[in-house]
Amino acid sequence: MLNIEDFEPQNFKKDITEAEIKKLKEEYEKLIKEKEKQIFKKAFEEGYKKAKEELESKFLQEKNNLVKQLEEEKHRLEKEQEKELLNQITKIKEQIKNEINDFKNNLLNLLVDSLEKILEILFISPENADFLKKTINNILEELESDSFIKIVVDKETGKHLKDKGLNVEIADIDKGTFIIKFDNFSLESKLKEKMETIKNEIKREIKENT
Question: What is the mean pLDDT of residues 5-31?
């Protein structure tokens, strides 16, 4: 290995040739270049390694942050979807409940209306004329029959009572309604009010048992 002291003037032989000096100089320059290459290579490798580690660490950190953000966003969306799904289910349940109630009410009204028609037909039918006459006679017996003037009924009912021996007057009143007139007062039987009472009672019974 050459040392810088080798090139001191006192160390040169007096008979050293220019060719030897040139050769020594070239070897020294070559040695310096090799040292520079080694130093540069080592510095480059260390710098590259450090930069690579820093980049990998930064990339890993960014990756972890991105994964965390994605997980949070996924969780948020799942919560929103779950909430929206629950709202939809609640709305559907409420809609079904309302539709069932509407159906029940419509069915109930249809049933009650049908019963009302049936009751009305039965009440004013010719077969019930004797029963209606008997009812009126019972009322007359309980009161002062001598003061009885007449019974006012609708046209349809009057058809069935005229031949029952009663003083009947036909008037424009509701079917099934009759008014018994005495000297000083009147008794009125209103079919519609009775039907309404029956309808309400039927509705109440059906609702209590459904």
Answer: 68
Cα separation, 183 vs 150, in Å, equals: 10
Residues 73 and 129 in one domain: no
CA atoms within 13 A on the CB side of 160: 20
Whole-structure pTM over 0.70, yes or no?
A: no
Residues 138, 194: one domain? yes
Do 83 and 144 have their domain in common? no
For the chain, helix, strand, coil in percent to 5 are 75, 10, 15
- Partners of 153 in the β-ladder: 170, 178
Report which of 210, 202, 207 is spatially closest to residue 114, judged by C-alpha positions.
Answer: 202
Full residue range of the structural domain in which residue 78 is found: 18-106
Which pLDDT tens digit goes with each residue over 164-199? 667 778 888 777 677 777 776 666 666 666 667 766
Same domain, 82 and 129: no
pLDDT digits (tens, 9 = 90+) for 89-112: 888 889 888 888 887 777 667 766
The rounded distance, in Å, linking the Cα atoms of 124 and 175 is 7
